[in-house]
C-alpha cells in the first residue's frame, strides 16, 4: 500500500504531460480546404524548380532522388534542382584519407546525379550538418564540400554561398526566376566563420547581408524571386517547438531511431528544453530568432514569391508574412521523415518522403506541386502529387 500513492502520482503526471503535449502538438487549427490545381501540359511550362532538402544520407537508387531525376529528365533545359541544405549527414565532408570519406563522397554524388543523369542544373545551399553541426571544424568542412561538388559535377552543380560566406548569392534562371541563396547556418555557427572582403566575402557585416538581400529582390525585374536558406522562418515541426507524446516518452529516438526506451516524466526534459530554446537550431533560441528577424526585414519590402527551406524532415506549405509563401521541403531521401503539425497559416503539412515542384507557366501563373514518394521511386516507382496550389 505504501507504494500506491507514488505510482498514482507518477501516472497522473505522465497523463497530464501527455495531454498537454497533444494539445501543443495538434494545435486545433482548422485545415483550409483547397481544390487540386490541374497538372499543366509540359508545353505550358516555362521553367520548373524541383526542391529537395536534408537529402544527405541516401542509399543507392534512393526512390526520392530517383523520382526527382525522372521529373527533371522530362525537360532538363527548363529545370533547376535545388537542394536546401544538410547535403551530407551526419557531420559534413571529412578530409581526404579519413575512413568515412568514401561513403560521404557517394552520398554527395547521388544528389549531384539528379542533375548529371537528367541534364538539369543543380544548386545546393549549406545546412547545419554540412558545417559539422556547428563544431570547430565546420568552416573547413563546408569549404571541402563546395570544392568537391565543383570538381566532380562537371559544372552541373554548385554549392552557394561558397567558402563559408553568408551570401546572398544571385542566380537568374532566364527571365523566369531569380534564385537568391543564403547560408543561414552562418548566422548560427558559434565558431570561425568568414565575413568581409578580406576573407573573400562580399557582405561586410550582418546589416550588410540584409541590405544586399533587399537589393537582390528589388532588382529582379519581372522575375519571380525565390530565396533559399536551410533554416525555416516558421514550422510546425520539432525545430518550431512542436513535439508529440512519443517525443516525451521515448526521447532517445532523436539520437537513435531504434532506441524505444520509455522514459516517462524524465523524457519530457528534452522536448521542453528544445521548446524553450536550448538549441540555436530551433526557433525558440535567441540567435535563431535574431537571424529570422533579420531575413524577414530584408524581404519585407520586396515580398518575394517564396522563402524555401529544409531543416524539418517534413513537407510544409505555410502562408508567409515577408515572403508570400514559406515552403519547407526537408524529407529528401526515403524514410527521412518526422512529425509535423498545422499552424494557423499552414496550407499543407505532411510527414512523408518527397519534394516540391514549382512551375512557371506561360500564362504567368505559378503552380506548386508537392510530390510524395510512397514506395520505390526508381524506374516505374510509385510517387504521386499529394497537393497542388496556385502560389500566384
Descriptive notes:
By secondary structure, the chain is α/β, with parallel strands linked by helices. It has two domains: 4-30 and 242-275, no CATH class; 44-238 and 282-390, Purple Acid Phosphatase, chain A, domain 2. The protein is 28% helix and 20% strand. The protein contains nine helices and 14 strands. The strands form two sheets. A seven-stranded mixed β-sheet has the order 4-3-2-1-12-13-14. Strands 5-6-7-8-10-9-11 form a seven-stranded mixed β-sheet, covered by helices on one side. The protein is globular, with a radius of gyration of 21 Å. Residues 1-6 and 8-28 have low confidence and may be disordered.
CATH topology name of the largest domain: Purple Acid Phosphatase, chain A, domain 2
Into which percentage range does the β-strand content fall? Answer: 15-25%
How does CATH name the architecture of the largest domain?
4-Layer Sandwich
* Overall radius of gyration: 21 Å
Task: Bin the helical content.
Answer: 25-40%
How many individual helices?
9
Morphology call: globular
The number of strands is 14
Give the CATH H-level superfamily of the largest domain. Metallo-dependent phosphatases
- What composes the largest sheet? 7 strands, mixed
